[in-house]
Design a protein that fits this description.
alpha/beta, Rossmann fold, four-stranded parallel β-sheet, globular, proton-transporting ATPase activity, rotational mechanism, ATPase_V1_fsu_sf
């Protein structure tokens, strides 16, 4: 298990401009040797296929430990979040400026509730 965690040192973010910018200002931004960033800013013009591809790419990267995604965007790719069952990277849904967090929609919270029989 330690080998799985050892190289995972980055956080990826998928969200609206304000949410992603806030995380980038905190210092999580990184661009690797392939010129691939660990973030995606999504707006009304961003195709859903781009969001799906980047999420899938983030889940396959061995240097990402956590993927933060705004719940509003998570709803659009819910099928991918529900299919992701690996421990790493962990996917966490966060609120956005325009939409508060709704725990009833969070796939991780639903899994925990099923685990405890709720």
């Amino acid at each position: 298990m330690a080998a799985l965690q050892q190289d995972r040192r980055f956080i990826a973010v998928i969200g609206d401009e304000d949410s992603v910018t806030g995380f980038l200002l905190s210092g999580i931004g990184h661009i690797d040797q392939r010129q691939k960033a660990n973030f995606l800013i999504v707006d009304a013009k961003t195709p859903l296929t781009t969001v799906e591809e980047r999420f899938t790419d983030f889940t396959k990267r061995k240097d990402i430990a956590i993927i933060l995604i705004t719940q509003q965007i998570a709803e659009e790719i819910r099928h991918l979040l529900d299919d992701h069952n690996a421990a790493f990277p962990t996917v966490l849904e966060i609120p956005s400026k325009d939409q508060p967090y709704d725990p009833s929609k969070d796939s991780v919270l639903k899994r925990v509730q099923r685990l405890f029989g709720e």
